[in-house]
Design goal:
mainly alpha, 2 domains, 2 strands, 69% helix, extended, AI-2E-like, transmembrane helix, cell membrane
Length: 448
């Protein structure tokens, strides 16, 4: 009798089917008719012609829907970009008017606390504002009068020392390891002189432009002070008037944003003034210990440089090191450089977090980009205004973001929000309780 063994089917390599089991026939695609078509293979090699999956019947419709969404987003982006370009163009044309207004607002943030103190003690608004502005002008003028004589006396001495330093550099270049001949140095100097003489007309034009810029700056400063007086005298009427130009619902947002932006400007000026004073004080002590000239002008430059974060401190420190190098030599310059670096590191890593906390939060990269953009657009004034403008944009962005999330950003820290009330004879803002679902803010309004 013959015994017949069962037929064994071996799975090919790479297949997960165990040996001795029957392979399951392929299942049809859920959208197919149930008939499995044989794969199309190459006639020579026998391999499949393509590894791409067959298209689904809904691919075209989904592609059209995605294209419509992309086209809508692109159109919206182009409209927003065009609106921003148009807004920048209009602001550029009105910059002559806007600059005194912005400067007047910044000065008003500094002078408002004493004006408010006087008004609370019964002083008329005009008298309080006028007295504070006059005292401010007197203090500023006295500071300039105190600096000018020392600068005039020591600049001549520094110029002589700089000439002697250039002679030392010339002797150093003629010796080893450079061994440059005096003829070569003379040719280089003559070339520089000829270049200056050839561009004398351009240099004269730059000088005229500089004088014109100084004149325009003085005119803007006078206008800013006049506007500052009116801001201090009538500033409390501004927010109700502005809110009255809108509806009752939008009025509370106008009032809240106005108060937040004012608080942001005031906080920025106070913080940078305190930081600048600390930097100027300690750097001035270092300059006094090592007998570096122009101590008071350098300290004042350091103070005002603090209002241009990062860039201003770098420029003021570079001036201090340069004057120390010209007057006292390389060793003292290196010591002054170390003092400036140490003070700035302490200010950036210790004082700034303590003074500003988490309220005024702008990344250092954002600050550098803002200062660079502002200086390229409007020079020193643009660099000075870049950071507060960026902070205001951050405040507006955070306000809109919280409003879209339903967090009621118009609610103040005491749990109230503004309500517009009035009639045809006048309008005023009253406080009303916040909605039950509103979050009471605990931090500063300037965080972003």
């Amino acid at each position: 009798m013959r015994l017949r063994l069962p037929t064994l089917k071996f799975a090919p390599r790479g297949d997960s089917a165990p040996v001795g089991t029957a392979t399951e026939p392929p299942r049809p695609h859920p959208h197919s008719s149930g008939v499995t078509a044989a794969p199309v293979t190459d006639a020579v090699t026998g391999a499949p012609e393509t590894q791409a999956p067959a298209p689904d019947h809904g691919r075209g419709a989904r592609l059209q829907a995605a294209s419509r969404v992309l086209a809508t987003a692109a159109a919206q982006f182009l409209l927003i970009a065009a609106a921003l370009v148009l807004l920048g163009y209009v602001l550029g044309k009105l910059w002559v008017i806007l600059l005194p207004v912005v400067l007047g607002l910044l000065i008003a943030t500094v002078l408002w606390p004493p004006v408010r103190f006087l008004r609370r003690h019964g002083w008329p608004p005009a008298l309080a504002a006028g007295l504070v502005v006059i005292v401010f002008l007197g203090a500023f003028g006295g500071l300039i009068a105190a600096i000018a004589p020392s600068v005039a006396d020591q600049v001549v001495e520094l110029a002589d020392q700089a000439t002697a330093g250039l002679q030392d550099v010339q002797e150093w270049l003629t010796g080893p390891p450079f061994n440059l001949g005096e003829d070569q140095l003379g040719d280089a100097v003559d070339s520089a002189i000829n270049s200056i003489q050839g561009n004398a007309q351009n240099i004269a034009g730059y000088a005229v432009t500089g004088v014109s810029a100084v004149g325009n700056g003085l005119i803007n400063l006078v206008l800013a002070l006049v506007l500052c007086f009116f801001f201090l005298k009538d500033g409390t009427r501004w927010v109700p008037w502005l809110a009255a130009q809108t509806g009752p619902r939008a009025g509370r947002h106008v009032a809240a944003l106005s108060n937040k932006t004012w608080s942001t400007l005031s906080e920025f000026i106070r913080q940078q003034a305190l930081v600048g004073f600390i930097d100027a004080f300690f750097i001035g002590i270092g300059l006094w210990i090592f007998d570096v000239p122009l101590i008071l002008p350098l300290a004042v430059l350091t103070f005002f440089g603090a209002f241009i974060p990062i860039i201003g401190a770098f420029v003021a420190g570079a001036f201090a090191v340069l004057i120390a190098l010209v007057d006292e030599g390389l060793t003292t310059a290196l010591i002054i450089f170390g003092i400036v670096l140490l003070v700035q590191q302490i200010e950036g890593n210790v004082l700034q977090p303590i003074i500003q906390g988490r309220g005024f939060n702008l990344h250092a990269g954002v600050v550098i980009l803002a200062v660079t953009a502002g200086s390229s657009l409007s020079g020193i004034i643009g660099a000075f205004l870049a950071v507060p403008v960026t902070a205001l944009i951050a405040v507006v962005y955070r306000y809109v973001r919280d409003e879209l999330d339903g967090r009621h950003p118009e609610v103040t820290g005491d749990g109230t929000r503004a309500r517009l009330e009035g009639d045809q004879h006048g309008t005023q803002l009253q406080d009303e309780p916040a909605p039950p679902d509103a979050e009471i803010p605990t931090g500063s309004a300037t965080s972003a």
